[in-house]
Amino acid sequence: MTINTDDLINSIIDSLDRIENVQLSDIPNMDLYMDQLTTFMDERLHKTTRYPGEDKILTKTMINNYAKNDLLPPPIRKKYSKDHLILLIFIYYFKTVLSISDVQTLLDPLKKRFHISDTDGLTLSEIYQTIFDIEEKEVDPLKEDLLKKADIANSLFEDAEDADKDEMKLFAFLSLLAYDVYVKKLIIEKVIDGIDEKSGKNKSKEQLKEEKRAAKEAAKAKKAAAKAALKK
C-alpha cells in the first residue's frame, strides 16, 4: 500500500475545511467584554484545533498575558474593540509556529495602526482583509505541493521489505512536510532577528543583565537620595 492520491486529496480537503478563517465581516464592530470575546473566538476558531471541543482557543489568562507582554493593547474600560479581535486572531495563528517574543516583533507594525482611521493610512481591517485574501489563493498551490511530496515519497524505499515499505514511505512523506515547515520557520526567524537587530531589540544576555544591574543601581541611588532629602 502506498500513499494513496485520492486519500491524500480527501485528507487535504478535510484539513482545509477545519481551517475556518474568520471573515472580516463576521468580526463585531461593537466592543466586547472578556466573556463575549472568548465565546466569539471559540465559536469561530474551534474547527482549527487538533481536537475540536477539547483544545482551548484563547483563555482569559492568555489574553491578559498578551496585554501584559505588550502583544496586545489593554482593553478600554474592560472592553475589547474590533482592532483587538483582529490582533488576537493574528496572535492565535502565529503562536502555533513562533515564540511569543517573535510574534511581538511581527505585530509591531500592526500595533502602530491600532485604532487609526482610514484617513490616517492603512487600518487593521484593511490589512486583515488583504492577508486573508492572499491566503485563500494559496490553497491550490498547497494541494499541488502536497501531491508532489506524496509522489516523491511513493518513489522511495522500493527495495525495502513489504512489511517496512509502507511505514517508510509514510515516514518519508511526513519528513518532507516537516522539513518544509522547519525551513520556512527558520526563514521567518532570520527575518525577525534582522528586524530586532535594526530596532535594538536583539540584545545579548550579557547586555540585558547589564541593563538590569544598571537599573537596580539607579533605583538604589534614587531611594538613597530620597532618604537623604527626608533627613534634611
From TrEMBL:
Alphabetic keyword roster: Coiled coil, Membrane, Transmembrane, Transmembrane helix
Keyword Repeat in record: no
Coiled-coil positions: 198-229
Superkingdom classification of source: Bacteria
Designated name of the protein: DUF1836 domain-containing protein
Transmembrane segments: 85-107
Pfam families named in the record: DUF1836
Keyword flag Cell wall biogenesis/degradation: no
Database matches in PANTHER family: DUF1836 DOMAIN-CONTAINING PROTEIN, HYPOTHETICAL CYTOSOLIC PROTEIN
